[in-house]
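Encode chain A's predicted structure.
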Amino acid sequence: MHPIDGLEVPAEQLNPLWVRGGFPDSFLVASDRASQRWRQDFIRTYLERDIPLLGPRISSRNAAPLPLKHLYSISSTVNNPAPKRRPA
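Encoded structure for chain A:
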C-alpha cells in the first residue's frame, strides 16, 4: 500500500491527508476516530510483525516507545543530520 500523494487531493484536503497519515485506508474513513484507530492498528502490526523480522526480538510493549522517544529527542531542535556520537 502506497501513501496518497498531496498532488492527488484538492488543496482543502491536504491538512486532513497530513493528519491522517496519508494512507488511503486512514484518509478515506468517515471519522477522525476511525482514522486514529486504523493508524494505531497499523503501528501495532508494524511493531509486532515487521520489526522482529529485522533482527532483535523486542516485545511490542518495549518497542512502541522507541520511535516516539527518537522523535521527541529531535523535535523542536535545529535539524542536524549527523548522528549523535555515543561515548566510546
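The longest helix spans residues 32-50.
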